[in-house]
Amino acid sequence: MKKLALFIMAVVAMGSTVNAQLGAPKITVKDTLVVVSCFYNGAELAVEDWPAALLIEDAVQIQIADYVYKKGKPVYSDVYSYNLSWDGHIDHYRYSATCNGKKADISIVKPRNDCDTEVYGKYIIDDYEFYVMTRENILKKLSE
To answer: What's the whole-number mean pLDDT along residues 29-36?
Structure first.
């Protein structure tokens, strides 16, 4: 009888640990980035033709216009690598994302402090290329 009781307790304990998993994070901080230039298939677009003026990103998703791209795990990452185009070190990530049930490729480049640029980063979403700045950097630039 004692063996049966121990066996039942062990099975119950194992069952509760199997179901214990961390859930998705609760997002409280989102980066609101201002689009400063936009390209489509390599051609620069006039401001009036941009799909949006703001890009909002958090750890789980990127929102641009009325589209929300849910990021998956990075399929590529290269952190703190020197890049001649940026004339400094960058962090580069690529994600396979989903938006409205369709797959999308997202590439993000964020220059490090040693880059001579005011741009916060570059986001390539499908055929669009967005160069963005933080609101703080724009306000700082305007006050100069």
So the answer is: 94
